[in-house]
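=== Structural record ===
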Amino acid sequence: MTSKNYTKIFKQLKSKPAKLAKYIKHNKPKKKEFGAGSKRCKRCGRFGAHVGKYNLHLCRQCFREIATQIGFGRFY
């Protein structure tokens, strides 16, 4: 049973709790510990173009919007 949408599979396995538990155990999404998918912007939640230097954890778009407010020079 493969599907992008888990709700369809959950609906099918609702009457079989043992199989549903096994399905959830083996097919739940894995927690990202490293790489681009593990770093999120703390302001908007984007994954890409992450600025982690100085412990900022902002995407580049949010950084450009608030750079002057947080003490960085004038950016265009």
The beta strands are 50-51, 58-59. The longest helix spans residues 17-27. Helices lie at 6-13, 17-27, 60-66. Residues 37-66 form one domain.
